[in-house]
Amino acid sequence: MVRILETTLRDGSYAIDFGFTTQDVKAICGALENAGFDLIEIGHGVGLGASDRQLGKAAETDEDYLAAAAGTLKRAKFGMFCIPGIARLEDIDLAAKYGMGFIRIGTNVTEVEASQKFIERARKHGMFVCANFMKSYALEPAEFAKKVVLSQKYGAEVVYVVDSSGGMMPNDVAAYFSAIQEICDVPLGFHAHENLGLGMANTLRAIEMGASIVDSSLQGMGRSSGNPPTEMLVSILKRLGKLPTIDPIEVMDIGELYIRPLMRKRGHSSLDIVSGMAQFHSSYMNVIRKYSAKYRVDPRRLILAVCEINRLDAPPDLVDQIAQQLDAADSLIASSRFEFDTYFGNEQNR
Predict the structure, then answer these.
(1) Most Cβ neighbours (<10 Å): which of 7, 124, 183, 212?
(2) What domains can you pick out in the chain, each with its CATH number?
(3) Does pTM surpass 0.85?
(4) Average of pLDDT values for 7-12?
């Protein structure tokens, strides 16, 4: 049977400027555990240490979130995200002090080697360790699979294919899983985003390919366009007979009670859609905002042009250069469709 890692209290925090309180953590963790979930992710969206690194100030400290989950959950494991270089090894020690049950070590797919010490430290504390290959699409499947072998060697118990920009197609998911399974027997996970509306289809394809863990969030709340909605995923898996222990109606009630009142977003942002089309990670949206405003060029066309050169990063020098080169016909000044300031007014770096 596949397991769901419920990530509302972590990935969902992007959508509310990392504003979950310890009371939210206690209430939502308790409700999710009662509904039957056994893997619940909490904390700052960017992970351990992110507030200290000025990557968005969360409403509470890492330790506050850890204490809230530890004091609430009796059966389910709680975990946090951890990006080496943002998090420190000492942050894992702090999490272990509160009995954190799992951790996800996230690195860009090209930087997997940076995860070794963090995986080893977490395993030393007895945590269940997942390696998240952020921006998985930046490597072709065969090269990706070689990195998975490294993670398994370091001690990762699950390796995640991560569609960070929401731009993968179901056949892409199958290609990555097949390449890994040809040379490696580590269990696989999948994390999707809904930029092109394919997050759920991709998640189901990952399950068909043998994924042992997949991610979702209540009401689809998450960074950029969000994640596959937990309520829908549970309902689908219930119909397929793959998730007998979780009641979909109870899950729907949790989403209605706790999450819908927090949802700010309506409709579909064209920036999110373009990000999926170009396979652009929304964490670089502020760079796009800066240079599209400076040169009054369409941010969507800027994203597309940048990703023709680099899908892994958005270096300011490159974005600046490309923004200057965009044709005047693509300038927002020349466009009567929308005014620049109002277009970007409600867009946030989620």
Answers:
(1) 7
(2) 3-262 (3.20.20.70), 270-345 (1.10.8)
(3) yes
(4) 98
